[in-house]
Amino acid sequence: MPVANDSALTEFILLGLTDRPELQPLLFVLFLVVYLVTILGNGGMVVLIRLDSRLHKPMYFFLANLAFVDLCYTSNATPQMLTNFLSETKTIAFAACFTQCYIFIALLLTEFYMLAAMAYDRYVAICNPLRYSVKMSRRVCICLATFPYVYGFSDGLFQAILTFRLTFCRSNVINHFYCADPPLIKLSCSDTYVKEHAMLISAGFNLSSSLTIILVSYAFITAAILRIKSAEGRHKAVSTCGSHMLAVTLFYGTLFCMYVRPPTDKTVEESKMIAVFYTFVNPVLNPLIYSLRNKDVKRALNSVLRQKVFTKMVVPSLSNKP
Fold first, then answer.
1. Which of 305, 243, 265 minimizes the C-alpha distance to 59?
2. Which has fewest Cβ within 10 Å: 52, 59, 208, 281?
3. Are strands 11-14 and 91-93 parallel, antiparallel or unpaired?
4. Nearest by Cα to 25 from 103, 115, 92, 85
5. What's the whole-number mean pLDDT along residues 143-167?
6. Burial of 41: CB neighbours in 10 Å, binned 0-12, 13-18, 19+
7. Of 183-187, 211-215, 222-226, 275-279, where does the model show the most confidence?
8. First-to-last C-alpha distance (Å) of the chain
9. Which of 17-26, 113-122, 222-231, 253-262 has the highest mean pLDDT?
10. Which spans in the chain are helix H?
């Protein structure tokens, strides 16, 4: 829908994943199930780590924060997306679009550095185990977990302001399922040079800096593991890092081609498919990756489930006694 030059834009139209009406109900059910599983998995992970004292360690403190970020990340777009699947009018208000864009960028940057903090935690645990409790004290953990939020939401606000300072007069139709930067830039009829380069610089810097921290940490971890003489010791060290390495591979693998290219018709279409992966697939897989490959999490989950079953069986029997 073209927008007149002298009119103030008050809303956008989200095209979504497909314009085929017969697929909308099927996609609604599919993404609703994925969203519910994501809430259960990530919400359950946060609650489990909170409830079980054996998981009150730096590694699980960061994991709880990662689960919280993933939960917020997918919740930022899914409700609007599910509504649009069943609605004829797929509009989103200008202010809501700004908020959605801002939160997406902020949480994306937050996850970069949360994964980096988790890599540093594994580096200290394996390379300097005798001083682990000192180097990863409660104060240090809080600082390492707070920085990603503060930096992510600060840079995210800067990037979102640059986007929404642009003049949108070509159209108000966004070729995406949420308010993303690349398709918004394509709608602008003003000069996008500053915004495009700011986006590329931010994406390049944050991808490379956070990934450098992770790679350097794992370089030292690999060297430390190679010095371990026993096969059992090497296996134990590798197993503590396996889940994080897999999560990093999935997350960064889908992002390298997302924000490091100027937006074109082809890249916008590709970005929708990539966005589906890191908005829905990564958050639903992370709890499975960390729980299925982690003995402490599985033991804690079994303990919580046994306590609930025991409570349900014993409490009614005690209440029935005269």
1. 243
2. 208
3. antiparallel
4. 85
5. 96
6. buried
7. 211-215
8. 74
9. 113-122
10. 24-51, 58-85, 94-127, 132-135, 138-164, 181-187, 193-227, 231-255, 265-276, 282-292, 295-319
- CB atoms closer than 10 angstroms to residue 182: 24
- State the angle between helix axes of 231-255 and 94-127 in degrees (0 to 180), rounded to the nearest 10: 160
Query: Tokens at residue 293, please?
Result: 């490959």
Please tell me which of 126-130, 138-142, 251-255, 298-302 the model is most confident about, judged by mean pLDDT: 138-142
116 pLDDT above the threshold of 70: yes
State mean pLDDT over 235-245: 83
Average pLDDT over residues 63-77: 94
Concatenated DSSP letters of 40-56: HHHHHHHHHHHH-GGG-
* Residue in the block written with tokens 């010791």: 233
Please give the Cα distance from 272 to 14 (Å, whole number): 12
Whole-number pLDDT of residue 100 = 95
Distance CA 98, CA 162 (A): 11
Q: Give the single-character DSSP code of 9.
A: P
Q: How far is CA 48 from the centre of its chain?
A: 19
Q: How far apart are CA 110 and CA 116, in angstroms?
A: 10
pLDDT at residue 266, as a whole number: 54
Widest Cα–Cα separation across the chain = 81
Please check whether residue 260 is in contact with residue 18, taking contact to mean a CB–CB distance below 8 angstroms.
no
DSSP label at residue 221 = H
User: Pick from 61, 64, 73: which is nearest to 109 by CA?
Assistant: 73
What local confidence, expressed as pLDDT, does residue 6 receive?
43
